[in-house]
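Inverse folding, one chain.
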């Protein structure tokens, strides 16, 4: 059985591929291992992020200081989307979501310091969403 971390990583990879291919997430899911493709966490998270993408992107954009969402690397953008979704729309504790985002950033981001930037943006989202 895959851990939540591994499933979150699968969501990240699929979101990244959506931006780089003509395939939609359902087609991409069919290419995944059965355990990932059949995971309710993966399916629900992808569906919800895609359905709420405009809202999620607006929340992220409102917490970017002197940056535009389009200027972020594709990897950082997907990491922020997953964590912002979890903070705003799931019962996952925000500390877990932020920590997972930082770990994904350390592993996948193109710049060594991206995890600090991601942590700062997510801190802003937490502060504005828990008021």
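Residues assigned per position:
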């Amino acid at each position: 059985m895959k851990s939540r971390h591994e499933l979150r990583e699968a969501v990240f990879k699929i979101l990244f591929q959506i931006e780089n291919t003509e395939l939609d997430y359902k087609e991409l899911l069919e290419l995944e291992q059965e355990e990932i493709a059949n995971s309710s966490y993966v399916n629900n998270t992808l569906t919800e992020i895609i359905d709420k993408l405009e809202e999620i992107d607006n929340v992220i954009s409102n917490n970017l200081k002197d940056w535009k969402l389009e200027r972020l690397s594709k990897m950082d953008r997907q990491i922020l989307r997953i964590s912002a979704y979890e903070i705003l729309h799931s019962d996952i504790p925000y500390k877990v979501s932020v920590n997972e985002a930082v770990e994904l950033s350390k592993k996948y981001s193109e710049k060594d310091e991206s995890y600090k930037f991601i942590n700062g943006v997510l801190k802003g989202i937490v502060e504005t969403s828990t008021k």
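The mean pLDDT is 90. Residues 4-20 form the longest helix (17 residues).
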